[in-house]
TrEMBL record:
The lineage of its organism: Bacteria, Bacillati, Actinomycetota, Actinomycetes, Kitasatosporales. The keyword Metal-binding applies. CDD domains: MPP_superfamily. It holds the Pfam family Metallophos. Keywords: Hydrolase, Metal-binding. Residues 49-253 form the Calcineurin-like phosphoesterase domain. InterPro entries: Calcineurin-like_PHP, Metallo-depent_PP-like, Metallophosphoesterase_sf. This is Calcineurin-like phosphoesterase domain-containing protein. Signal peptide: none annotated. Residues 1-44 are annotated as: Disordered. Residues 9-21 have a biased composition (Low complexity).
Amino acid sequence: MTRPPTTPDTPGRPLTTTPDGAGPAHDTAPGPDPTSETARSDGHGTVVRVAAVGDIHLGPDCAGVLRPAFAGLPDRADLLLLAGDLTRHGTVEEARVVAEEVADAGVPVVAVLGNHDYHSGEEAAVTQVLTDAGITVLEGDAVVLPVAGHKVGVAGVKGFCGGFVGRSAGEFGEPEMKAFVRTTRLSAERLALALGDLSAAGCAVRIALTHFAPVPDTLAGEPLEIHPFLGSYLLAEAIDGAGADLAVHGHAHLGTEHGMTAGGVRVRNVAQPVIGRAFALYRLPVAGDGTPPVPEAVRAAAPAHAPGGELISGAVRRS
Ligand SMILES: [Fe+2]
Ligand SMILES: [Fe+2]
């Protein structure tokens, strides 16, 4: 996990930003449509419906803005992921606004904090406010949620920066530089351990939740000069090493929704300015639940989106 960044990333892979979720036509469909965002099955087996958003940057002046959208979650999602930067300056007052927004979500809410949530040095109090509201705030740990008889696991860390393969900072030289990179390395190691815990717990679906980006794919649109401050390849190595079905992050407001790790784990940047709506919806088939095996090549080439929510076919391992 600490080896030099010498392996290539995923150059040339097409990225798409097709909008998904929030499709009103599916909300009013009269019959059970296996591709609708309300369906718990894709016609072959169970799907886990994941709503996710980051970088909502709430403050007292926008209280109530997201509450109506979150109130409809139980019909559309099994859980809500919050990918950090929930506040503007990390104050308790702002955290209380976040807590109020999700108070009636009606589904489990799992969050990580972002850099903005640390700004006032009140991250412990912010975490407490969110926890008191029933939100599970992860930092180097994991949570297992029961969904339709299956275990769905979420492992979370804020993560940190440092850059990506071939253009990253190294743990070398001055103490300050070593400390900078060590922060990212330790965060990535905690993420790997937490994902490993989910495997040990027998989770049918495993999700890695971070604020900082694990891959550069989802930074497309951000100035190249600031990529090293938006994420780190060490997070992707942790995800690929431990395994996950989906990786969700925020932080890159000008980035792109879709990406993939070198190991083939799908990555989604759910920063609200990127997804352009209250939350994105992803549908993850439960492995071994009647879903017929799909050849790897077909999975890799399959359309990224299904009506009413993106269908995530699982990790595509590359040799
Ligand atoms: Fe942000
Ligand atoms: Fe951020």
